[in-house]
Amino acid sequence: MQKIVSIVGARPQFIKAGPVSQAIDAYNRRLGHLQLQEVVVHTGQHYDDQMSQIFFDELKLRKPDYNLGVGSGTHGAQTGEMLKGIEKILLTEKSDVVLVYGDTNSTLAGALAAAKLHIPVAHVEAGLRSFNRNMPEEINRVMTDHLSSLLFAPTTTGVKNLRKEGITEGVHLVGDVMYDAALEHLKLAQSKSRVLKHFSLRPKRYVLATVHRAENTDRLERLHSILEALETLSQQWTVVLPVHPRTRKVLKGRAGAKSPGLVLTDPVSYLDMLLLESKARVIITDSGGVQKEAFFFRVPCVTLREETEWVETIQSGWNVLVGTKARSIVKAVMNAKGGDRVQSPYGKGDAARQLVEVLAGRLENS
Question: What is the mean predicted confidence (pLDDT) over 40-68?
Answer without folding.
Answer: 73
